[in-house]
Amino acid sequence: MSKHFQRLMPVLLGTMAIACGQAARAATAPSAAGNDLELTEVLVTGSRVITNGNDSPTPVTVIAVDDLKDTHPTNLAEAINDLPVFGGSRSQYSNTGTSGAAGSPATSNNAGNVVNMRSLGLLRTLILYDGHRAPPSTPDGYVDIDTIPQMLLQRVDVVTGGASAVYGSDAISGVVNFVTDTKFKGVKINAQSGISTYSDDRTFEGGIAFGTDLFGGKGHLMGSYSNRHDAGLDSKQNRSWGRDVRTLQGDGTAAVPYFQVVGARQNNATYGGRINCPTGGNPATVAAGVYSAGCVGNLNPLIDQQFSSGGFLVPFVHGAKTGISLGQPFEIGGDGGFYNQQLRAALDMNQLYGRYDFDFDNGVHYYLSVADTLNHSVGTADYYSNTGLTISRDNAFLLPQYRTALTNAGVTTFALGKIFTSIPRAQLETYNRQVLIMTGLQGSFGHGYKWEANVTHSDGRFDVHMNDAINMGNFFAALDSVVNSSGVPVCRAAATNPLYANCVPLNPFGVGSESQAAINYILTKAAWVTKLGMDDVSGSITGAPFNSWAGPINTALSAEWRRLTYQTDSTALATDRANCTGITLNCNASTVLLNRAAVNNVAKVATTVKEAALEFEVPMLKDARFAKELDLNAAYRHAMYDRAGNANTWKIGMTWDVLDKLTVRATRSRDFRAPSLDENFRPLSVSFTAFPDYITGSGVATTNIRTENGGNPDLQPEVADTLTYGVVFRPTDNLSVAIDAFDIKVKNAIFLIQGNTPVYQQVCYASKGSSPYCQLIGRGLGIYDPTAAGATGAANAVNLWRQTFINLAEQDTQGADIELNYKTSLASHPLSLRLLSTYQPHLVYKQPGLANFDYGGVAFGTNGIQASPVWRVTGFVNYRATDSLSIGIMERWRSSLKMHADPTVVVSPSAGVKSVAFTNLNVAYEPKLQSSTKLQVFLNVSNLFNTEPPQAGFWGNPNPGQFGEFAQGDDVIGRYYTVGVKVKL
Predict the structure, then answer these.
(1) Are 410 and 481 found together in one domain?
(2) 833: which of 263, 575, 650, 870 is 20 to 30 A away, CA to CA?
(3) What's the confidence (pLDDT) of residue 52?
């Protein structure tokens, strides 16, 4: 067997927990559920030479997969994210919508489950599968955990420290290794079904697996099939807290601090349509918190009214504006509209897996595994909304009395703000298929030398379909209608542009006023596919060529060649423009053809890396007065990237067994991450968004400005310096405590920078145009100095927001992982207690031209940064009440969260996000059967007390109901019941 497989002996009694990541001292380690996980020979993840897990200076954790699924039987990724070391991960909750977490439909991944260690970034945690690099499975370069075969997984190993010197790029915050039970024999069948206490988000999961020896035990064959169906939850309105429509409002200034709002509304758009001030115009006055009926420089007598059924105008009833600055289009209550985004994406997963092993007579071991995973997900976003549609007074559907009033006032057009609820909410339907093949040989030679050679091949295909994209040319043509000589509404453009000869006029006045024929006319289909590939060839030789006075010096020499490919083909290009001939209103030369569905093609691109590494473990002392053992571990890796250049990484670590009951360990490492192909070559995509313009708009949200999102081929690698150090104390056989501190500094960090972000705007304007952030903002006159002549005029308004990746200065984090394990008995039955905690007070982002932002303990941030509590704690209580009945309780708690990382931003004391705890209960019954068959029936209740997520509006997007309303990681489904059965034959 390869040197990768070694005896792991627990440092701590009890399950090896993520917080301290201890490796092993005994042959078995009690699991979270009180069962025993056999660890006679396991892969020591994080090293190629360490023969005893206790000698690992970098914390390593071993977690039984069955135990994870017992406490949270949804999917494996969500169960892993219950552990405190993970934060800011991507899941079915955080990916909802049509633009993906990174803001581009090209990377949309509605239901992807991607782990994020220490909230440092999704691409900074390396994912391994059976000790080898897992291939990217999403367009943005992440590894979706759902694509890793799970039916026959035995355990998950977690390295909570830098490991680039051992495994290469990406292992900055740590490594997660999914390990298969390659010796499984027999047949097992699992089936479970779940439903929320609100009778929604139904799930079903079933699977079957087998394993058998062949050829007298020389060969071994096993395989599995599993299916998971999750209906998801496509509306926040299905929850009472979602119907509250929570947002964060205010300016963040001393005069108008940010404050939490329940019942927020958008006063410039209603579901029937509201007549607004013209684009760029402001209300004339605000008295007693209510807009006046006039606009600066405008004489429209219909201002501040809304369309009701039949196209009749009625007064727009305002809500309270107390505490909100002049010009912000939000109120508390009133007739304004609000958004309704998806809560949890729907997901169907089918997975086939097979593996064959064979031992040749000469001691060479051969293996081949094949996995085929198909995920189908549906992400639902908002209704189409536009707050600045220009409508002509001679519109065919405008009632005569209003046309007359406008004519008498000398007004030819007016601005309409409407949320179009008759047009289906935008949906992205994705099909993600990945075929993963791994094959290799393992053997030995000489005096204890072992070798391994592995080949990994992956083909991934990510198909995205938007079946209800809006053809903006058709939409604007249908919106501008007139009455012909026969008294029939027709599209104005139909008379002059043959492209719109079949145009169906659209009535925008009132709720549900649009005919189905008009809706069918403006909707179209769009699709794009991203193809991902990876070929990886690796090999290693391990052995002990030398001996020191304290024992053998174990050494590993390894090499790897890897090639990644990326390609996007689209039927809806960002360069496609609407044909505006004959359309006199709303349409112009920059109007994209398809709304929220434009993605450019990317011809096949590739990156190749060649790597070589050396690692060794040197025993320094043994059975000395002040050291039972003292071991030194070191590694060095040289990588040659054809695009990112050369990289040198290293680590040096020490483990010191002071006494049998006390171990001290520390590691210092230099790690790195090369840019992903998505970061380099993300296809240009275009959307239209409304964000504040802090020069011409005084902070008022702009009207659906063009937003471009794309890659940056000039990116450089990230470099990280990591220090971990800790102690493990075992005062008794039943009690253990471990503390491991960490300090990670990422330099040249890569982030998606969005020009519409208020802080980047402010830096740009303060520099009067010299800041590099100004390149992310397009202005009509190109004036970025607010004091310059013409700067505040409408002609200088923002006409383009850019979003792209750039290398920033530094990202730092410090903290500690803490674990306590206690094992005892109650009424002669085993009882285990385990407490895992991560303390992470600082997560600092340092960017040029900006103050340092510390996101430790903050709910939201820019660039997709999600909740990072200072304290994350997970506790387990497991009790075997009888020989057949087991009871498990998991309690998960996080500390309270601040709203903003900028110390200059003023937030109301009541605006923070409160601390919260969620409780899971699992009851399992295993009857004693006469045969060798094992049967378990279980009931799991997640969020036992139906705790709601604390109020958490997001300052970066105050549109009511559109984003935020809860901190990522909080339970938003509510009490959830899962019943299931597990059979082992």
Answers:
(1) no
(2) 870
(3) 57
Quick one: three-class SS letters along 301-313? CCCCEEECHHHCE
Residue 770 identity: S
Residue carrying the six token digits 């997660």: 176
Q: What is the mean pLDDT of residues 369-397?
A: 92
Output the six-digit token pair for 748: 């040249």
> Domain range for residue 693?
676-715+751-807
Could you tell me the two tokens for 179?
């390990």
Task: Tell me how far apart the terminal alpha carbons of the chain are, to the nearest angstrom.
Answer: 28
DSSP string, 481-502: EEE-TTS-EEEGGGGT-GGGTT
Rg (CA), the chain: 30
- 499: pLDDT strictly greater than 50: yes
Tell me if 42 is assigned to some domain.
Answer: no
Nearest-CA neighbor of 214 among 83, 88, 357, 80?
357
Structure tokens given for 981 = 């059965």
Q: What residues have CB less than 8 Å from 348, skipping those under 6 apart?
A: 227, 228, 229, 230, 375, 376, 377
pLDDT at 321: 73
Q: Computed from CA positions of residues 110, 114, 118, 123, in that sequence, does the dihedral angle turn out positive or negative? A: negative
Token digits of residue 870? 């200072």
pLDDT of residue 543: 94
Instruction: Give me the DSSP letters along 729-782.
Output: EEEETTEEEEEEEEEEEEES-EEEEETTSHHHHHHHHHTTT-SGGGGGEEESS-
408 and 469, same domain (yes or no): no
Q: In whole angstroms, how far apart are CA 705 and each of 269, 289, 849?
A: 16, 28, 26
